[in-house]
Design the sequence.
Protein backbone atom coordinates (compact mmCIF):
# COMPACT_ATOMS: atom_id res chain seq x y z
CA UNK A 1 0.00 0.00 0.00
CA UNK A 2 1.00 3.60 -0.45
CA UNK A 3 0.55 6.67 1.69
CA UNK A 4 0.70 10.38 0.97
CA UNK A 5 3.16 12.40 3.03
CA UNK A 6 3.68 16.16 2.79
CA UNK A 7 6.59 16.79 0.47
CA UNK A 8 9.93 17.75 2.03
CA UNK A 9 11.56 21.01 0.94
CA UNK A 10 14.56 19.26 -0.65
CA UNK A 11 12.21 17.07 -2.70
CA UNK A 12 10.19 20.13 -3.71
CA UNK A 13 13.19 21.85 -5.30
CA UNK A 14 13.86 18.78 -7.44
CA UNK A 15 10.16 18.33 -8.27
CA UNK A 16 9.68 22.00 -9.20
CA UNK A 17 12.39 21.95 -11.86
CA UNK A 18 11.26 18.58 -13.22
CA UNK A 19 7.61 19.64 -13.13
CA UNK A 20 8.28 22.87 -15.01
CA UNK A 21 10.21 20.99 -17.70
CA UNK A 22 7.63 18.19 -18.08
CA UNK A 23 4.66 20.59 -18.13
CA UNK A 24 6.37 22.59 -20.87
CA UNK A 25 7.05 19.41 -22.86
CA UNK A 26 3.40 18.32 -22.59
CA UNK A 27 2.18 21.67 -23.92
CA UNK A 28 4.63 21.49 -26.83
CA UNK A 29 3.58 17.91 -27.59
CA UNK A 30 -0.09 18.91 -27.76
CA UNK A 31 0.62 21.97 -29.89
CA UNK A 32 -0.52 24.46 -27.24
CA UNK A 33 2.84 26.22 -26.92
CA UNK A 34 5.85 26.82 -29.14
CA UNK A 35 9.01 25.11 -27.94
CA UNK A 36 10.81 28.46 -27.81
CA UNK A 37 8.36 29.84 -25.24
CA UNK A 38 7.29 26.71 -23.36
CA UNK A 39 9.76 26.77 -20.46
CA UNK A 40 9.09 30.43 -19.76
CA UNK A 41 5.31 29.92 -19.79
CA UNK A 42 5.53 26.80 -17.64
CA UNK A 43 7.74 28.55 -15.08
CA UNK A 44 5.32 31.49 -14.97
CA UNK A 45 2.40 29.16 -14.23
CA UNK A 46 4.30 27.38 -11.47
CA UNK A 47 5.34 30.73 -9.97
CA UNK A 48 1.75 31.99 -10.05
CA UNK A 49 0.34 28.88 -8.37
CA UNK A 50 3.20 28.37 -5.91
CA UNK A 51 4.44 31.88 -5.02
CA UNK A 52 5.57 30.64 -1.60
CA UNK A 53 6.63 27.15 -2.63
CA UNK A 54 5.34 24.45 -0.31
CA UNK A 55 3.79 27.11 1.94
CA UNK A 56 1.56 28.53 -0.82
CA UNK A 57 -2.03 29.03 0.32
CA UNK A 58 -4.43 26.23 -0.60
CA UNK A 59 -1.73 24.18 -2.36
CA UNK A 60 -0.92 20.68 -1.09
CA UNK A 61 1.99 18.69 -2.50
CA UNK A 62 2.62 15.13 -1.39
CA UNK A 63 5.16 12.42 -1.98
CA UNK A 64 3.60 9.06 -2.80
CA UNK A 65 5.42 6.61 -0.54
CA UNK A 66 5.43 2.81 -0.20
CA UNK A 67 4.26 2.20 3.38
CA UNK A 68 6.40 -0.90 3.87
CA UNK A 69 9.71 0.35 2.43
CA UNK A 70 9.50 4.14 2.66
CA UNK A 71 10.41 4.33 -1.04
CA UNK A 72 9.19 7.50 -2.77
CA UNK A 73 7.17 6.40 -5.78
CA UNK A 74 5.71 9.62 -7.11
CA UNK A 75 4.16 13.01 -6.52
CA UNK A 76 0.67 14.38 -6.08
CA UNK A 77 -0.14 18.11 -6.14
CA UNK A 78 -3.61 19.44 -5.55
CA UNK A 79 -5.26 22.72 -4.74
CA UNK A 80 -8.13 22.95 -2.26
CA UNK A 81 -9.79 26.34 -1.86
CA UNK A 82 -10.27 25.98 1.89
CA UNK A 83 -12.32 29.18 2.27
CA UNK A 84 -14.85 28.39 -0.47
CA UNK A 85 -18.17 26.58 -0.29
CA UNK A 86 -18.61 24.11 -1.81
CA UNK A 87 -15.03 23.10 -1.15
CA UNK A 88 -13.51 21.81 -4.38
CA UNK A 89 -10.12 20.35 -5.15
CA UNK A 90 -8.17 20.46 -8.38
CA UNK A 91 -5.36 18.07 -9.17
CA UNK A 92 -2.45 19.88 -10.80
CA UNK A 93 0.01 17.03 -11.00
CA UNK A 94 -0.01 13.30 -10.42
CA UNK A 95 3.13 11.36 -11.20
CA UNK A 96 3.96 7.75 -10.54
CA UNK A 97 7.64 7.35 -11.35
CA UNK A 98 8.32 5.27 -14.45
CA UNK A 99 9.75 2.25 -12.61
CA UNK A 100 6.58 1.92 -10.50
CA UNK A 101 3.98 2.25 -13.27
CA UNK A 102 1.65 -0.59 -14.20
CA UNK A 103 1.77 -2.13 -10.71
CA UNK A 104 -1.35 -0.60 -9.18
CA UNK A 105 0.41 2.17 -7.25
CA UNK A 106 -1.43 4.92 -9.13
CA UNK A 107 -4.75 3.40 -8.12
CA UNK A 108 -3.57 3.06 -4.52
CA UNK A 109 -2.45 6.70 -4.49
CA UNK A 110 -5.85 7.84 -5.77
CA UNK A 111 -7.59 5.78 -3.07
CA UNK A 112 -5.37 7.46 -0.45
CA UNK A 113 -6.21 10.82 -2.03
CA UNK A 114 -9.94 10.06 -1.82
CA UNK A 115 -9.60 9.46 1.91
CA UNK A 116 -7.55 12.62 2.39
CA UNK A 117 -10.05 14.78 0.48
CA UNK A 118 -12.98 13.34 2.43
CA UNK A 119 -11.16 14.20 5.68
CA UNK A 120 -10.76 17.78 4.37
CA UNK A 121 -14.53 17.95 3.72
CA UNK A 122 -14.01 18.39 -0.03
CA UNK A 123 -17.14 18.12 -2.21
CA UNK A 124 -15.47 17.24 -5.50
CA UNK A 125 -12.17 17.12 -7.33
CA UNK A 126 -11.38 18.09 -10.89
CA UNK A 127 -8.29 17.53 -12.97
CA UNK A 128 -6.92 17.91 -16.46
CA UNK A 129 -5.43 15.10 -18.50
CA UNK A 130 -3.61 15.65 -21.78
CA UNK A 131 -5.39 13.82 -24.61
CA UNK A 132 -2.39 11.65 -25.50
CA UNK A 133 -2.13 10.32 -21.92
CA UNK A 134 -4.56 7.45 -22.42
CA UNK A 135 -3.28 5.40 -19.47
CA UNK A 136 -4.02 8.22 -17.04
CA UNK A 137 -7.39 8.87 -18.68
CA UNK A 138 -8.43 5.23 -18.25
CA UNK A 139 -7.25 5.16 -14.63
CA UNK A 140 -9.22 8.30 -13.80
CA UNK A 141 -12.36 6.85 -15.37
CA UNK A 142 -11.95 3.63 -13.37
CA UNK A 143 -11.56 5.69 -10.22
CA UNK A 144 -14.87 7.49 -10.72
CA UNK A 145 -13.88 10.68 -12.52
CA UNK A 146 -16.39 11.88 -15.10
CA UNK A 147 -15.72 13.90 -18.24
CA UNK A 148 -16.91 17.48 -17.80
CA UNK A 149 -15.29 19.16 -20.84
CA UNK A 150 -13.52 18.04 -23.99
CA UNK A 151 -11.25 20.21 -26.13
CA UNK A 152 -10.42 18.95 -29.60
CA UNK A 153 -8.12 20.09 -32.39
CA UNK A 154 -7.86 19.22 -36.06
CA UNK A 155 -4.45 19.70 -37.69
CA UNK A 156 -4.02 20.89 -41.27
CA UNK A 157 -0.24 21.15 -41.17
CA UNK A 158 2.09 18.83 -39.32
CA UNK A 159 5.04 20.20 -37.40
Sequence:
Amino acid sequence: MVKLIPMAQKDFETYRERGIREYAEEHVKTGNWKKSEALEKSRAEFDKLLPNGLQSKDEFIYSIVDESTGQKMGILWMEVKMDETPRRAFGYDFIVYEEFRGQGFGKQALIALDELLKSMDVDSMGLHVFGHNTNAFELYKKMGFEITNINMRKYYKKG
User: Anything to note?
Assistant: The radius of gyration is 16 Å. The chain has one domain: 2-142.
